Queue: 2 jobs
Job 1
Amino acid sequence: MSQPVNLTNRQQQVLWATIRHYIATAEPVGSEALVKDYNLSVSSATIRNAMAVLEKGGLLFQPHTSAGRIPSDSGYRTYVDQLIVPSQDLTHQVAHLLNDRLNSGDWSFEALLRGAAQILATVSGYITLITTPQTRTSHLRHVQLVPVDSSRIMLIFVTDSYETQSALIELPLSADAADIDADLLERELQILSNFLNSQLRGRAIAELATLDWSELDREFERYADLLRTILVELTRRSQPPPPAQIVISGLAEVLRQPEFSELQQVQTIIHLLEEEQHQLVPLIFERSDLQKPGSRVSIRIGAENPLEPMRTCTLISSTYHKDSVPVGSVGVLGPTRMVYENAIALVEAAADYLSEALSS
């Protein structure tokens, strides 16, 4: 995940207002518009100075020399990570809407997915993507951490079906890592391996990345970041096979957005959705390293998406569960100029609804 950007309160207010205005209008934003439409209690010159600082920091840019400014991917990332809270009112409204319109007792689960996708697409105005449930789960049998050198370790783990996987992981150590005692490192990794086995043996691998180890015993506290990296790597290396399909709805809605007015871009998105679902599934189902600690959603903004057709888009997704095990995902795909507070709330509400329907 990217490092937080340190902004003054004034700069945060100006960035927030600029992005809100651009989301609403799809037009470059000038200082006069912010003075008129937002109660920032400062002069136009002060706002221009703040916007210049934000542009220098890579959070805003000018599409044309004489134009106002628009958010960059980094600007949206700062906005999402630091400046907004998902709409709880919308979460409750969508939960009621799903419960009122869909009767989980009378519908097949696939019909529920289609109905939920249509509702989310209509409410959000974005493309909705829901993976069908993947019920095969692997459980962890054994894990071992082996030192490779002063800055890397090998993660080796065995599943309940005796499948063995391994991965190299960088140690988040200090600048004097080269001077670390090799015997000490080996002893500490053995202690950490024993701790992991005692905590994780028998658990479904798919649920490991959702564990919160923010409060650890003092002896393991300095390994908190490494433990989180290990959990993510375990789930990534042992992903279940791709679900049979993705339920897709809302293409007509998103085509009304000005970002999709060019035929070429629309064609690449349609090709991805129809012909390249095998590439899309892992992005929706896998928890992202761009996910905030404690957050239930994964958010990939613009160039953070590895697939070229999606690099002008944002993908917001969250897993739904059978009991405590993640088996599928709900996502919305739309332009980076997205109402993030609402999109996050919609995805969370749908994931909760599907989890309840599948576990009841």
Job 2
Amino acid sequence: MEEKLTADDLRELFLFEKLDDDQLAWLAHHGQVETRSAGATVHDEGEPATCFFVLLEGTVALSRNIGGERVEMNRTDHVGSYFGATQVYLAADVAANQKYMASVESVTDTKMFQLPAEEFGPVVREWFPMAVHLLEGLYFGMQNTQRAVNQRERLLALGSLSAGLTHELNNPAAAAVRATAALRERVAGMRHKLAMLANGTVDQRTLTALVKLQENAVERVAKAPKLGPMEASDREDEVGDWLEGHGIQGGWDLAPTLVAGGLDVEWLAEAVDLCPQATTEAAVRWIAYTVETETLMNEIEDATTRVSTLVGAAKQYSQMDRAPFQVVDIHELLDSTLVMLGAKFGAGVDLVKDYDRALPPLPAYAAELNQVWTNLIDNAIAAMDGTGTLTVRTFREDTCLVVEIGDTGTGIPPDIKDRIFEPFFTTKAVGQGTGLGLDISWRIVVKKHHGDIRVESVPGDTRFQVVLPLTVPEEA
């Protein structure tokens, strides 16, 4: 026979002490006493919230599932403590879809008063209509506020990334425009020199040799070594002296172009020997135009390649035209985020990548993980205040993949370390942060991917470790 509590028994509990006799009688009739032995589970996180519990005797522990492990969040032996379907006051259609937010386990033998949520909910709304309106307003108001602020946080991040991407795109685009304008002038000059070489003063055999020299010059440009400032200056002086000795006007202006293209005095001497004395200057300038046009075309190629790379990184970052859930290479996600945030690094921040390329592909919501990397990397750069080293590391830990974002900034003070994942908590100045970046990251990693975020911090060494299971999340 099931055990029941009397109205007098219920009046002894702080939760029910202000109720009238009829209300207590209703609770006594509809509720019953449940017992659990030590180590038994009362209810599991994620199950439908069907019962409301009040502790009568013993000790219970509340835990959450983090990274596939059950982590204890609280423990109590306080008589009258309540748990389970604590949001029964919500409208019936909303309350019916509620789930237990945590798991509860009996640490010792326990005795609890249990009420069915589907019966308790309607009477709570009937007995306390004003309180229910206030609680519903608070519940839905907080949900709407957090949703709006989350959207604002994403828009702020998008605006910052867009500004950075625009800056990154502007540099190669402007370089391509400048190089194209210069190339147009050099091609026009090259046509002029070609007309001078072909006006009859140069025989066909010599002209053929010059064309071969031109081709050879193009090959040397492609293989031209990178010279240091001192070495380049010495070679320019040598070539300038040679040009001046051969009566070529403005030779000092041509020398840097020829040296940058990998041409030296020996090569020039060989070229001049193929030409009549009267055409030496025209031949040298023709070759100089060849070198410069080839260099400008290389600049245009580099600039357009950079633009293409940035567009590709933006597409990878946004996961445009891709399914929300997919199997991805974690390093591609990290690299695309680093490219998008490139404008924030500045000259004083060094980037170190320590990737474990043997890691298997990760089943994940790629676009949302990119938001996690954005928040963590952006915070790390801000913590270093323009100077330091950002380290992005990946490695495997049992059945999980770990991404570590480290910085050499000031660190997180111990007194606020436990609060950094709280919604709206921020140490940034007013207007510089909403306090939701880490909260959003935590929910993406823990709630959606069933992973974990760990933090280790001392001055000069702060590390955020994102732990992601290599298995497919259930809801995916």
